[in-house]
Amino acid sequence: MSWLARQETHDYEENDNLGVDWVLQYEFGDLDQATAISEFRALIHDLTEAGLRVQVRPGHGSALLVCIRVPRDHLGKMVHQSRIKDWLFGITNTLPAGDEKTTATAATPSEEIRSVYHAVTWQKELGGAGITRKFGNWKNITASFPLHDRDACSELLSKWNRKTNLTVQDLDTIRALFGEKVAFYFAFIHCYSLFLVVPAALGILAWWFLGPYSIIYGSALCVWCVVFVEFWKVRESDLSLRWNVKGVGRLKLNRTQYVWEKEVKDPISGQVTRTFPAWKQFLRQMLLIPFASIASVALGGLIVFTFASEVFISEVYNGPLKEYLEFVPTILFSLSLPAITSFLTGIATHLTDYENHRTQDLYDLAQTQKTFVMNFITAFLPTLLTAYVYVPFGASIVPRLDILRRTGLDVNMANHKEFQVDTSRFQAEVIYLSMTAQVFSFTEEVVLPYVKHVLWQKWRNYRDHKAGLARQRSFSKSTDLLLIDPPGEAAFLRRVRGEADADEYKVEEDILEMCVQFGYLAVFGVAWPLVPLGFLLNNWLEVRGDFFKLTLECQRPPPIRADSIGPCVLGLDFLAWMGTLSTAAIVHLYRGPMAEVRLSSLLLTIFIAEQVYLGIRFTASTALQKVFSDTLRREEAGRYAVRKAFLESSQSQHGSPGSSSRVRQRVRFHERVNVYSSDSAPSPDGSPSPTGEQPQHDVLRGSDRESEFWTGREGDPADAGVKLIRALHAGQPRDDPKMTKLA
Amino acid sequence: MSWLARQETHDYEENDNLGVDWVLQYEFGDLDQATAISEFRALIHDLTEAGLRVQVRPGHGSALLVCIRVPRDHLGKMVHQSRIKDWLFGITNTLPAGDEKTTATAATPSEEIRSVYHAVTWQKELGGAGITRKFGNWKNITASFPLHDRDACSELLSKWNRKTNLTVQDLDTIRALFGEKVAFYFAFIHCYSLFLVVPAALGILAWWFLGPYSIIYGSALCVWCVVFVEFWKVRESDLSLRWNVKGVGRLKLNRTQYVWEKEVKDPISGQVTRTFPAWKQFLRQMLLIPFASIASVALGGLIVFTFASEVFISEVYNGPLKEYLEFVPTILFSLSLPAITSFLTGIATHLTDYENHRTQDLYDLAQTQKTFVMNFITAFLPTLLTAYVYVPFGASIVPRLDILRRTGLDVNMANHKEFQVDTSRFQAEVIYLSMTAQVFSFTEEVVLPYVKHVLWQKWRNYRDHKAGLARQRSFSKSTDLLLIDPPGEAAFLRRVRGEADADEYKVEEDILEMCVQFGYLAVFGVAWPLVPLGFLLNNWLEVRGDFFKLTLECQRPPPIRADSIGPCVLGLDFLAWMGTLSTAAIVHLYRGPMAEVRLSSLLLTIFIAEQVYLGIRFTASTALQKVFSDTLRREEAGRYAVRKAFLESSQSQHGSPGSSSRVRQRVRFHERVNVYSSDSAPSPDGSPSPTGEQPQHDVLRGSDRESEFWTGREGDPADAGVKLIRALHAGQPRDDPKMTKLA
């Protein structure tokens, strides 16, 4: 993909963000003009009231782009306050120096953007503008996102193309650009891919010398799975300390949808917390069990039915159109799956709403849990059916399908010869899963959306151009000026429109995809020793493809913090456990002639495998925690140092322990924070600015283009927007009754 | 036992500790006089150099009792320093106010005695006297202990006799008297006994309506076991926060035996730590596996052999002396068990030494782990053999024993009738374990040692009296004065001599005993539903008996801190897991006729039971952690409050955040700290004393008797001791060649 990366660096004008921190897209195509105008005025009012600077530009079709900029001193204060809060909640150990009016410079772009995100989305009581996308009053705000840092992204991507392996610095860079939640995904795929080298190498040896269903390779694979999961747990906690996000969940704000039963004032800390009884929530969460049952029955039934009809048609049926009919079950399945999945997702969302989680994090976690259950069924059940039902029992089940068919209508069935189960079908499916399916999913996930996105943008631009021509000379000159992009901004605005139309990046989906891949390896890997090699190659591409998708196809996600990859760790545990049992069963079943397998010996094998699994897991977790306890020790040492410093300062009556730390000059507006060289840990004590030196207003010292963007069009942005709404409403080439009435 | 408690309160003179903080017993019977004198002078020198006051009295036989008292201002400083250290290591959240010269009053007797313990045992570099009992230079120090607080103990014991159930206040009292490690044991037995009420009630119902081997009762029992273990984990962490000992392991000092590879200076905190690679230690710890194998083979072989010979004699053999021979195997087993156990314990100790643990805590933990393995084998293997080998396979195995015998010598075997396995033997063994064995072990553990101790004391006193008569008129008058107890001290010294001769209290053994009991219930409980009732009744007595043993039969243990019951939690986990599998297997085997049981269905039952176990454990641990997360939340709130207070104080430039806390008068020497009303958490900020008010020397303001004890005999305690050594050496009624030479 290096050509793409290079292609993207050509245009400085396009890549410059002109000091825009955040963009809202307001769509008013479905509203009448008066409502649209009043809503829009309220929006601008809320934003300016929260101390944000605003510029309005036309978007695609009947949409406005609201460019938001947080004045630097306001932003610096927010960053400082956020660090103080981190310290109060014990996320970091160093209290940033300074008082209430101190402004701090963000250590990373993501820290800066997180404060911008807070300024835009937090409730007014907390000092934000209270703009929640697609919720409540703001249901017509269809996009709310920060702009990508194109230069940094393409630099990173082209850097990755020159080497095979990511480093911790690369992960730090991702964290600096996109926040910890995204960085954890890349850390996971990186760690997982590195670990994959071991079974890939073993797999080549096993493929050469042992063949499939080897006991040695199977055991090695199980041990590897367990060790990897335990290692990742340690690694995760390590990273969360490195990135200063350990336990970050507890300082997150309540969701607006959170229903609390009583307010509790803590006797020790004086904090008022809004609580909801934990046991009630747990009971509600127990509804996961009926949900999982329903999902299993619905999806499982569909899969069993598809599987049975497919087997029937391919193995038994011999009538006309066989070659076409063979595809019918799969096509029907693919067509009905989205409907069923979306129905189940609907139930899942209702359940998660009902569970009443305090923070968005916990809510997402609960929702991901349910998605995991559904994904697990659709991803694993077909192959499980092949491995444990079709191949072992096919010889007795399939002829019955035949009989069922025959008793109904007696079509011309040619050969009633003894049915032979194709025992290699299971292996063939595993090979398909590890090679073809991975390529398909990559295409589906990265390539297709990109093509679609590019074509769609071209079509929108063409349509806008036509609409612009149609509108010509119908408005006042000042409106015209608003409608036409100034030459200096044109490329930039094209890009912003593109990003506003792009999809949101859902990191949970990518994490789930990797978990499913790990699951394939753990559960079915023993059937074909080259599976890990296939996955390893795929992941080399996947990590780049996902970064490409993140930077060029999706909106930049708000840099949310997290201290793990979430509930997927539990999923990995479950998959490693199931993998052990399944590997034991597959090896036992498929090694020799299947007819000779006795149920009691099979059960004994599985039972022993489970005990071995429990033993290995215990040993691995103890050993890894012991050996890699370095970070934890360092964290303790950090805490100790804080307390020690405080003790010394309080005993020598100095007061503020940070007062001796060096005072750094505030970073000027346009100076780009270098994401490569920034420290892995923000140094919260490094950047206080004495209160007196603060600029009274947000003076733009950046490039001329920036200052032109923010000051070139004097006048109320609300008025400009209203003019644009009127113009765009009129110029829209749609047969909307309201629009024609107003025009 | 109330009569005992009351009997003990009769004598004020005996119960008063006369301000003695610590007692060392120096035995010199095996040394020549010159060595004994020089060793003793070194001892007194080290103690006085460390700032401790010393008085010497004769002990039993050729032993001296060295009574130690830490001057109150020295003690107060140590208490304060220890609190500062707790705060530095993050054990407590509140920084005690004051500077380096502040003296603090201990909140509990155990806090005070812990500082005394440190003053006596810590190395000289750390400000202690460096006296380690039975180690290095001090191998003739045979006892090192604080004196019991008789009044408080008997008050507590008589209080317990008036009620059926302990309260948290009682646990707090135990903590105040004996420290957290002992308190955790009582908390565990208390929590476990309370939980036992549920299966006891269910058991009565099951006994009445369902009979043994009921599926319903078995399932309930398994669920109960899992829930109890998970609850205890939550409870333990709750208590460790309540008692301010969470994570206390990390501030413990290195063992003197610890071998470090390099000194690492922490870049953040500046602490110098002596490290030993964790992976190396882990590899060494892996030797547990061969050790467990050897122990299993040794003990298991012995048990199997005993079992087989017993069965052979009782079921097959029919020759002469049958009624006597039947007991021979058990007697031989009982006789050889101590030898084998002590051999294995020796190996275990060597292994633990080799593992090179940093602190005594970790060392004890590793040793307990190995003891657990041995205990597990001796406690469970016999009954497991009955349940899973003798009853199911006895019919085919026992006749073979017969044949083996017959081929050798053809003794007169009367009836060669078909051998019938006695299927009720398993149940009979379980009934024995839950009733008779418990009573036996209680007698063995509490009653016998008490009788032995009392008789032994009487014998020693009688012998001392005789030796005193033999010595009469052979020494100077001043030596005689030293040899004869002054009337005011006689009762007190009799008690001190008794305590010096008493055993050490090993809390780990009591914890292990409870774990084994829990294991019996989990593993075999389903065979007889009244097992939990038996255990419940036993535990009512056990908790009182153990407290009786602790206070009247053993030396007062140094109040060591701990934040859990140690490795036994892992043992409980293991027993709950094994219990589930075993209950499933027993119910499956014993419910119907055993001949009809098929291996595959048995394996399936066990396999399903294991999955259910994993499921329940996961659910229980999630639910309990969610519901009982209150303490953790409170701890977080506590941390938050500390940081908040610090932030405010540092912003208002006050400096020391604790400066506003009230200054309390130091508690006078004799004022007894009331262990009942003392706060559960020591309030470290409540008791600083301004530096200026400190007394220049430790003025005794207590009773006359106390001041007489400490000042009545002026002169160097070392000289007094030397005189006593000479006198006692001479007066000892033994035919020691050295003694006769010197006399």
Which key phrases capture this entry?
membrane (chains A, B), disordered N terminus, mainly alpha, disordered C terminus, homodimer, two-stranded antiparallel sheet, transmembrane (chains A, B), Anoctamin/TMEM 16 (chains A, B), 743 residues, Anoctamin_TM (chains A, B), 4-stranded antiparallel β-sheet, chloride channel activity (chains A, B), 6 strands
Summary of the model, kept short:
Two copies of one chain form a homodimer. Chain A is 63% helix and 4% strand.
Q: Which structural class should the secondary elements of chain A be placed in?
A: mainly alpha
Strand order of the largest sheet of chain A: 2-3-1-4
How many strands, what sense, and barrel or not for the largest sheet of chain A?
Answer: 4 strands, antiparallel
Estimated share of beta-strand residues of chain A: under 5%
Quaternary structure type: homodimer
Rg over C-alpha atoms of chain A, rounded to the nearest angstrom:
30 Å
Distance between the termini of chain A: 48 Å
State the helicity of chain A in percent bands: 55-70%
Q: Low-confidence parts of chain A, pLDDT < 50 over ≥5 residues?
A: 1-10, 410-416, 653-697, 733-743
Overall mean pLDDT of chain A: 78
Any idea what the shape of chain A is? globular
Mind explaining what this structure looks like?
The structure is a homodimer of 743-residue chains. Chain A has a domain at 17-150 and 670-742. Chain A is mostly helical. In chain A, 63% of the residues lie in helices and 4% in strands. A 4-stranded antiparallel beta sheet of chain A has the order 2-3-1-4, with helices on both faces. Chain A has helices spanning 2-8, 12-15, 33-49, 72-88, 109-121, 150-161, 168-178, 180-209, 215-242, 278-285, 288-316, 322-325, 328-355, 360-408, 424-434, 436-471, 477-483, 487-501, 507-524, 531-553, 568-591, 599-627, 630-651, 704-711, 717-731, 737-742; strands at 22-27, 53-58, 63-69, 141-145, 262-265, 272-275. Residues 1-10, 410-416, 653-697 and 733-743 of chain A have low confidence and may be disordered. Chain A is globular and about 85 Å long. The longest helix of chain A is centred in the middle third of the chain and has 49 residues, at 360-408. Chains A, B: Residues 674-718 are annotated as: Disordered.
